[in-house]
Amino acid sequence: MDYRDEAVLIDIGGYKLNSLLLPSKSSPPSATVIFIHGASTSLLDPLYTFRDMRPDNIQMLFVDRPGHGKSEFGPVENIRPDAQADAIAKLMQMRGIESATIIGHSYGGAVAAALAVRHPEKVSGLIFLSPAVYPWVGGIAWYNDVAKMPVIGALFGLLIAPIFGLLSLRTAMKSVFTPNKYPRDYTCRTKAWQALRPRAFRHNARELGALCDWAESAYKNYKNIVVSTIIVTGDTDDIVSPEVHAKRLAKDIHRSELIVLKGMGHKSDYVARDLVVAAIKKLAGHDLDLTAIAQRVEHQILEEQRAERGPI
C-alpha cells in the first residue's frame, strides 16, 4: 500500500499510529527526516513550521506520538519514551524506511534518544531541539500531578482542564515561545486545543510524570550513541533547562555539535527553523557552516526583540 502524500493511520501491531509523509521534490529522495513532536501537541506542530521548508531531495515524515493527535494510545507502556521509540521503529518498517535522521523537540528528544539507543540501525543522524532527556529537580506542574490520579484525575480532566485550559490556552502557548514572538495563527493551525481533550490531557500528564523516572536510568546509554548529532537550544529557555539537558547531552554524545542561541526560548523548532533546515542538509552530506548560520539566526532574534520593544 502507498502511504504517501496524506496523513494515514497505520497498524503497527494492535494499535495505529498517524503519520504524514511529504515526498521529496526530486525522486528518489537522498535522505529521510522524521519529526517527533513534544508534549501537549501533535504532528501539526512541526508540520506548521517545516511543510514548506523541506530541501528538494529530502522526504519528511511527521508522526503523531501514541495518544497524541490522531494516533491511538496503545498499551499503557506507551507513556514511556522507549515504548514510543519502538512504535516509531515499527512505523518506519511499515513505511519501508530503512533509516532516517531523527529530529526530536522537547519530549520528542527523549524518544529520539531512545530510538538511537534501541534501534541504532534505523538512525542515520540526530537533531535534538531543546531536548528533555535527563532527570530534573522540581517535578511537573501541579495540574499534571492532579491529572495522573486515578479518580480525581479523571474528574479533573473531564470537568476542569477543558474549561480553564481553553480560557488560558493562548497565554499558555505564548509562554512556550517566550521571549520570542508568538505566531498569531499557531494555535489555530496546530489545533493546540486537542491536548485539552480529557483522555489526551491525562495521557500527556502520565507521560510527563514517567519521563523523569525513565531518564534516571536511560541517560546512562547516551554514551553509546555514535551517529552524527546536532543539538540546538536557547539560553533563555524556561521550560526545559539547557544546563540540565542540552549541554549535558553534548558531553555524553561524543559526535555531537552543540549550538546555544542567545535570546531564544523553548520553541527552537520554530524560532531557529532556518538553522534546523541547515542541520538537516549538513547531516545529509552538505558542507555547511552551522556556526555562521546560527549567528545570522541570533541576529534575527535580536532584531525581532528590538522591534517588539519599540523605540526607547
What does it look like?
There is one protein chain. With 312 residues, the chain is an alpha/beta fold. The chain contains eleven helices and eight strands. The protein has an eight-stranded mixed β-sheet with strand order 1-2-4-3-5-6-7-8, with helices on both faces. This is Alpha/beta hydrolase family protein.
Short description:
With 312 residues, the protein is α/β, with parallel strands linked by helices. The chain has helices spanning 44-50, 81-95, 107-118, 142-148, 152-177, 186-190, 198-218, 246-252, 268-271, 273-283, 290-309, and strands at 8-11, 16-22, 31-36, 58-63, 100-105, 123-129, 229-234, 256-261.
Going by CATH, the architecture would be 3-Layer(aba) Sandwich
Helix content: 40-55%
CATH H-tier superfamily:
Alpha/Beta hydrolase fold, catalytic domain
How many helices? The count is: 11
- Main sheet properties: 8 strands, mixed
End-to-end separation:
60 Å
The CATH class is identified as Alpha Beta
Low-pLDDT segments: 142-149, 151-167
Count of distinct structural domains: 1
Determine Rg (CA atoms, Å).
Answer: 18 Å
| Basic shape | globular
Question: Strand-residue fraction?
Answer: 15-25%
Question: Mean pLDDT, as a whole number?
Answer: 87
E-strand count: 8
Sheet with the most strands: spatial strand order: 1-2-4-3-5-6-7-8
Q: Strand pairing plus helix content: what structural class?
A: alpha/beta
Report the CATH topology name: Rossmann fold
The string of secondary-structure elements, in order, is EEEHEHEHEHHHHEHEHHH
